[in-house]
Amino acid sequence: MGHHHEVSGSKLFLTVVLNVIITVAQIVGGVISGSLALLSDAMHNFSDVLALLIAWGANRLSLKPSEESKTFGFKRAEIIAALFNSSLLLAIAIFLIYEAVHKFFHPEPVGSNWVIWLGVLSIVLNSASVLLIKDDSHDNMNVKAAYLHLMTDVATSIAVVIGGLLMKYLHIYWVDSVITILIAFYLIYASYDIIKESVAILMQFAPEINLEELAKSVAQIEEIENIHHIHIWRLNDHDIFLEAHIDFTNNLKLDEVRVKLEEVEELLKSKFHISHITLQPEFNRDDSKNLVV
Fold first, then answer.
1. Residues 170-194: pLDDT tens digits?
2. Which residues pair with 200 in a beta bridge?
């Protein structure tokens, strides 16, 4: 599953600055031009600023060492932040749909030049932001959430420019509402997977590991009868934890048990990418032998 990836603070800071510039420019331009699509893009960019600030702060918090009252440290800070960011996207999308439907039936003239040029500015600066944090997004769920914010901004800004051109040359002002609704549905699409995954981690749902295959692999080790009473979960988007009971076929000495448990741990780490393993050795114990109890 890889090591914990530390986010570059300087890159995130520069990305925040770029998005503050876009947000302020689009809010001013949206008010002057009367464009809901431009204002919606500004709100999306403002959510990017929040997402990036939280990404940086949560990453730093997750790196704090464990202590007696917090034995896992703050390793789930990034997951909570990812859930917040993606939920914010969802809330913005619902608001945009509501406003766009209302404006669709009451279209008004829009200052298309503002829409076009500020849309172009957003494309350029958001593309720069995407390149800045692209590497950090590959193995960090929280930065991936921020990265998706920026990617959707590039796509939505392209749509805003197209809408501005249609309004300028064809005077089709209801297209402003259509573009807004398209932005909103794209936000829903972009946020769904992150919400689903972050909730699964916080609820300690099992990762996508075939427990039957895991049990068969463990049982092939000599002197081991079975593995049962398995609990498996993800602490964050990197670390998988497992605890289970191991039945031995014979009443082995303690040092022999240790050797066998080390074999099991090596198997689980190399084949199933489980990073933290706790095993309870047993012999002739009358308990449930189900994989999940």
1. 888 888 888 888 878 877 887 888 8
2. none
